[in-house]
Design brief:
alpha/beta, globular, binds 5-O-phosphono-beta-D-ribofuranosylamine, Rossmann fold, two-stranded antiparallel sheet, 205 residues
Length: 205
């Protein structure tokens, strides 16, 4: 149909600062995302990500879990909202909730997550601190498909970040963020173009 874009429609989920959301929005503006961000989904009213969404003119859908009777009801509402926005793909960007079966089933193989370590090392909420405390000399960033296993889905992109002797959590996180902002748009573009998943291995086009 004339005038209707064939571009895939992306939702970005955030709970906090939203710097990755902004990196995706920026890439989108430059036509480098291969998708269009149609909504930012947020579970916290005070998240700075909401301010960023407003700046980019992207609708922010706030769905606070406490407004729903159960996790299932919360997820059902999210899926309904995603359908309303005709979302094709999802990028989790600092979304601090476990994405459950309802959402995963609605978007199988279509949900990306970004994690600040070289998976499968240092899963969980304190990956940067854990890597520093472990004493690894190289850590990094992983973008993977979200599955029922937390931080355990097939990896689509990874990049290493060197740990420097004088690093603090803050200084290391700063360099990790810089890499995240570079590779997340790239991973979204790859997913939008189409991937093949064989076991744990993702092949991109
Ligand atoms: C990022 O470090 C990401 O890897 C992790 O949560 C953080 C989100 O940061 N999942 P921001 O909200 O995008 O600034």
């Amino acid at each position: 149909m004339a005038g209707v874009s064939s571009q895939k429609r992306l939702a970005v989920f955030c709970s906090g600062s939203g710097s990755n959301f902004e990196a995706l929005a920026k890439a989108g503006r430059r036509g480098r995302l291969g998708t269009r961000i149609v909504v930012m989904v947020c579970d916290r009213p005070d998240a700075f990500a909401v301010v960023r969404a407003n700046r980019y003119g992207i609708p922010a859908a706030l769905l606070e879990p406490k407004a729903f009777g159960s996790r299932e009801a919360h997820e059902r509402a999210i899926v309904e909202m995603l359908k309303k926005f005709r979302v094709d793909l999802v990028a989790l960007a600092g979304y601090m909730r476990i994405v459950g079966a309802q959402i995963l089933r609605a978007y199988p193989g279509k949900i990306l997550n970004i994690h600040p370590s070289l998976l499968p090392s240092f899963k969980g909420a304190h990956a940067v601190r854990d890597a520093l405390e472990y004493g690894v000399k190289i850590t990094g960033v992983s973008v993977h498909l979200a599955t029922e296993e937390l931080d355990g889905g097939p990896v689509i992109l990874q990049e290493a970040v060197r740990v420097l002797p004088a690093d603090t959590e803050e200084s290391l996180l700063k360099r990790i963020h810089a890499v995240e902002h570079k590779i997340y748009p790239e991973a979204v573009r790859l997913l939008a173009r189409g991937i093949k998943v064989k076991g744990r291995v993702i092949k991109t086009k």
